[in-house]
Amino acid sequence: MMIGPIGFATPWLLAALAALPILWIILRAVPPAPLRRRFPGVALLLGLKDDDSVTDRTPWWLLLLRMLAVAAVIIGLAGPVLNPQDDGAEASRGPLLILLDASWASARDWPTQRDLLDGMLAEAGRQGRPVALLRLSEPEEPVFQSAEAWRSRLSGVAPRPWAATPGMMARVAATLGSDDFETRWFSDGLSHLGREQLLSALEARGPVSVYQSPRPVLAMAPVELVDGALRVTAHRVQPGASRDITIEAHGRDPAGVQRLLATLPLSFDTDARQTSGDLSLPAELRARVSRFEIAGQSHAGAITLTDDSLKRREVALIAGRDDREGLELLSPLHYLEQALIPTADLLDGALMDILPANPDVIVLADVATLSGGEQTALLDWTAKGGMLLRFAGPRLAASDVSRTDEAPLMPVRLRVGGRMVGGAMSWGEPKALAPFAEDSPFHGLAIPDDVTVSAQVMAQPDPTLADRVIAQLSDGTPLVTRKRVGDGQVVLFHVTANAEWSSLPLSGLFVQMLERLAVSSAVAQPKAQDLAGTTWQPVRVLDGFGKLIDAGNLPGVAGDRLVSDDIGPDLHPGLYDGPDRRIARNVLGPDAVLEPAAWPARIPVTGLTRPAEAPLGGWLLALALVLLMGDILASLALSGRLLPARAALIILTALMLPDPGQAQDDKAILATSEVVLAHVLTGNAQIDNTVRSGLAGLGRTLFFRTSVEPAEPIGIDLETDELAFYPLLYWPITPDQPTPSAEAYAKLNAYLRTGGMILFDTRDADIAGFGAASPNGAKLQRLAAPLDIPPLEPLPEDHVLTRTFYLLQDFPGRHTGRRVWVEAAPPDAEKIEGMPFRNLNDGVTPVVIGGNDWASAWAIDSSGNPMFPVGRGYAGERQRELAYRFGVNLVMHVLTGNYKSDQVHVPALLDRLGQ
Amino acid sequence: MTLPIAPLRSRAEAEAARLPPLLARAEHLAGAVLLGEHGRRRSGLGDDFWQYRPVQPGDSRRHIDWRRSARSDMQYVRQREWQIAQSVMLWVDNSASMNFSSDDNLPQKSDRARLLALAVAVLLNRAGERVGITGTLPPRRGNAQITRLAEVLVRESDADYGSPDMRGMQSHGRALFVSDFMGNVDPVRTALTSSADRGVQGVLMQVLDPAEEAFPYRGRTIFESVAGTLAHETLKANALRDRYLERLAERKAELRAICAATGWQYGLHHTSDSPQSALLWLYRAFDRSMGR
Q1: What pLDDT, in 10s, does the model give residues B90-99?
Q2: Which residues of B make CB contacts under 8 Å with A?
Q3: Which helix (H) or strand (E) holds A275?
Q4: Would A367 be classed as within a structural domain?
C-alpha cells in the first residue's frame, strides 16, 4: 500500500489506529495512580471528605501526547518505507536481459552501477524472472538463468579498458536468439558505432530501457612532446559549463618510490569539449614520468601511459678533428647534429668529462686512438649498457687501431688504408648499399638510389665478421658492423659521419638508421610499417579502472597491429616491450573524438541513482519512545514530583549517550600503569584470540627471563582506542579485515612517528614471496599503503634486533620464513673498525614485517601449555624457543631503542677516558 | 556465638557518634545564649557565699573552712546561700510522627526538638536547676546529667503519635513539653490539667515542619502517617488544603487555650526557622515561669 511516497509493509496494522479514540475515552476515565505520601498531619485530615467525587482529569495535552506515542508505535510497526522499490510490479514477468557497456567509461560509476544492478537482480529474483547478463566489451552468448546465480557472480563482473567495437555489437546481435525478453541497457554515456543496429535488434524482442550515469566522462589523449614541453590534452564527452580539472604526472622519485611528480591545472571552457595545456618539466624529471592521469577519475580513459617517446636520449658527440674552424659542412659532426637535435639532447665536451654524466650514446667521429684511462672508462661504460657509435675517417684509416688484434672498442679488425672507389684516381663506380638482411636492425628500411659510398675502411675477414655485419655494400663489403660488449654495444660505420666518403649522411636513411640503432628516439608514435615483422610483448596492462596490472601470460602482439589496431580484447592498453624500446598503447589515440551517446526519443533513459529505500519504522518507534519519555516528565510534573534537580537529571540522562569515555579511561590507566603488549583486533575472533594468547605467552616469557614484566595484552580497536600507550602493536593480517578509516590512519602515522612499532604478520610463511599475490600479502599492501613507512630492507645480519637480548640470526615463528623486513639502514652506515656491526639506524625501526605467524608459536592456553604444535619433536621445540627469543629481542628493541647499538661507541668512550 | 565484628563496631560507632554532636550543638546553642545579658544575671549563683558560722556538734569536719578558722581560735563552717533549686522535667516527643522533614535541607522535627530540649537543659543546668526527663530520668544536676539526658533523648518510640508522660513530675516543679501535638489532644489536656493541679507550670513547644503549615500537595494522594498506622486517601489534595489549614489553626488555638487555662506558656517553632530564636524564647519563658 502506498500513501504518497511512503509504502507500508503490513498495512493492516494501521487498522489499530481506529482504536485510538476508545483509548482516549478510557484514559480519560481512569484517574492517575494515587501518590503515597508520608505526612504527620494526616491525623488532622481524617474524616475530611472530597467535595468532588470525580478525580483530577488527565490534562488533554498529556492525553494527546500519549495518543501520539501510541499512534507512532502503530504506524512504526506497520513498517512504513519511504520510496519503496516495488516498481517491478508493473513490469513484465518475462526474461530479462541486462546489457552492460562495461567499457572504460563505465568504470567511473561502476560501484553505483553495480549496486543498482544488484538491486535489479534481487528484484528479478523475487519475481522469479530468468536473467542474462551480458558485457558488450566481452561479448558472449546470453545465458538466461536465475538472478541469484548472477548475483553471486556480480562482484566478478568488471569493466574492460576498451569499448565495444561494431564487430562485437554485431556478434551480440547475432546471438540474441528468437525469444522475447525485456532489455535493460547500462550505457557508458559514449556513442559507439554499431549501437543502432543492436538497439533495433533488441527492440524487436521486447522493451528496452537505458540506464546511464549523468556524470560527465573525462578522458585524456596521449601526451605529446611539443617544443620540449609536454602537451597534455583532455577531452570531455558532454559539453557544458566550464570545469577545472587537474592533470597529475606520476612516476618514480630518485629512490624508486612512486610519487606525484607534477600537476597541471587545466580548464574546460564553457561548451568546449577539449582542452590542452603544456607542462614543462626538466628532462630528468620528464624521463621518470610513467603515467599522466586526470585527478579523481578512476577509469582507464583518464590515464595515459608514457613510453620511450617522451624520453630524449642523451647523446655525446666527440670528434677527433676540431682544428678546421669555419668549415661547418666538413665538420665530422655537422650531419649528426642535424639528425639528432630534434630528438635527442646533445652533450658536448671532453670524453672524460662526459662519461660521469652517463649519456645513453657516445658518438666517436673519426677518433682513432684513446688513452689507456679513457679506453678503460669507455669500455666500462659500454659494458654497463652504453652504446658507442664510431665513424671511420682519415685518421682511423691511417692509424694502427685494431689492425692486428681486434681492439676492444672496435667491432672488427681493419685493413690498412681502406679503399677508394669511383673517385677520380680509381676504377669502378661508387658503390650502393645492399638490401638489409632480415636479422639486421635496419631490416625493412627502404634504400634510396642516390646513396653511394666512395671510400671506406675495410674489415679484415675474420670468423666472426659475418655475424657482426649489419649493413653492407652491394659488393658485400661491410658498411656497418656491430659488436656486443657486456650489456652495451659498439657500432662502427665504415664511412665518415660527414659527406666526404659517402652520401649516406645526406639521405633520410641516415636518420632512420640512427633511429633503428636507438641513437635517437622517434617523437611520434612509430608507423605500422616501421614495426612490421617485430613482436611486442605486453609488460603491464591497464584494467578498466585504470590500474596497472601485470600482463601475465597475455600473448605478444605483432608490431604493425600494435600501432594500427584499435584497443580491444586482443590489444590491451598498456606497456609493450619490443626490441630496444617500449611502446605504450593508451585507451584513447591521439586523434580520438568522443561523442555523447544519442538515444532515440522512444527509449527511456534514466540515471543510475534512484531514491534509496528508507524504512521509517525505526524513526517512528524512536519518536514514540521520546514521546513516552516526555509523558513521564509531564506526569511527574503534574503530580508534583518533578523537582528541578530531578528533572535536570532525567533530561541529562536522556540526552547523554552511554559514555564510552569511562571504559576508555580504564583501558588507558591499565595500559599506562604497566607495560602492555597490544594487538590490533581484526574482527576474526579466532585470530584475535590466538594473537592475544600469543602475546600472553610472550609476556610470560618476558616475565620469567627479563626485567620486562608486562601485564595482560590488550586488543586495540584502531578506530576508537588511543595508541600512544602501547610500545608494540602486533597486527595480524587477514584478507577480510576492515580497512581503517582516514582518522585511524592519521592516528597510526602519529603513532609510528612518535616511536611506536607495528609488527605486521601476514601469517602465510611468505609463501608467495614478498608482496606478491598471496591474499594476505596483497591485503598488507593495501593496509600499509597510507602508512608513513620508511624504505625497508630484509633484516640485515648486523641489525640491532639480532642482539638486543639473545644473539639470533633466524626469526622463526610457526613458520620458518627467512625474510623479515625492517627499516632500511641509512646508505652511509659504515662498519666501524673492530666492530662486528655497523653503526646503524639511530632509532627503532617503526615497522617489522614478516609472515612467520609468531603469535601462534607464542600462544599458550590458560594453563600455560602451548596452543599450537610447532615443527616436529625436539627441533620444533627449539623453533618455538627461537620464536620466543625473537619476541624477547623485539620487545627489548622496542623498549631500549638503540641501546645495544650504542655499544659501537664503547671503544671510543674508553679511549676518551684514557684507558 | 560470634557476632560479626565490623557491623557491630560500625553500629556502635554510629550510635556513639550521635551523642557528642547533639551535645556539642546544644552546648554551642546554650553558649550563644549565655553571652547575652540574661545569662550574667545568674552566673555564679550556686557558688554564692552566705555566712560563716561556728562549728556545732554534728558538723562534719570536712565542712570546716580552714582558711577562716585559721584567722581566729574558733572553727567556722562556711555556709552557702541556701538555694531552692527548681527541678525542670522535660518531655520530648519521640514518636514516629516527629521523624519527618519535607525537604532534605530541613532537619527532622525530632532532631530540632531534641536540640532545643537539650540546649535548654544545658542552660538550666548552668543556672543551677535540676533537669530530668519525665518517666525515665529523675532530675539531677551536673554535667553527667547532661550526658544522661542526651542518651535518653535519642531514644525513639514506635508509636505514631506521642502523649505527654507525667510520671516523675514533682509538685511545683517546672516542665517543658516539646512535640508537634498532631495526635490526640486529650492526653495533653489531661496532662496539663493534672500538672496545673500539682502546681507544675511549664512551657508547651510545638515544633512543625513548613510543609505541615503550607500543605503544598496536589492530585490524587494517599497520606500516610510516618509509622503507617493512619492513612487518608483523597482525589484532589489541593481541595483539602483550606480545610486542613483550618483544622491546624483550630488545633493551635486549642493548645493555646489549654495553656492559658493551666498557666502554661505556648510556643510554636518551625524547623525552617533558626533554633537560636526558639531557644531565646524558651529561656525567657522559663525566666518568667521561674517567677523571678
Answers
A1: 899 888 888 8
A2: 97-98, 100, 109, 161, 180, 182-184, 209, 211-212, 215-226, 230-236, 239-240, 243-244, 247-248, 251
A3: strand A274-279
A4: yes
